[in-house]
Write a structure and sequence with these properties.
0% strand, elongated, 86 residues, transmembrane helix, transmembrane, DUF5985, mainly alpha, membrane
């Protein structure tokens, strides 16, 4: 059941990134770009979670990589929010 939930979270993040990217392509609003990039990194984080907890539960520890991608995603969104403040 956990594998299904982790996979659905990854697909949801990827879908959100795709929708934000499509909206950015139409309007060129900078905040949409930063949000799409953040959700793309969050999707990568969720894929790493699936790999860590389902595919290689004992052999490999991807905790550092997961935390790094989550931190990078939040930093990207924070930079976008601060940089685009008018």
């Amino acid at each position: 059941m956990a594998a299904l939930i982790y996979s659905l979270c990854a697909l949801t993040s990827l879908a959100a990134a795709g929708l934000l990217w499509r909206a950015w392509a139409g309007s060129r609003a900078p905040l949409l770009f930063w949000s799409a990039l953040c959700f793309l990194m969050l999707a990568a984080n969720n894929v790493l979670l699936v790999l860590d907890k389902v595919v290689w539960p004992v052999e490999v520890d991807l905790r550092t990589a997961r935390l790094g991608t989550a931190l990078a995603a939040v930093v990207v969104l924070l930079v976008g929010l601060v940089w685009e403040d008018d």
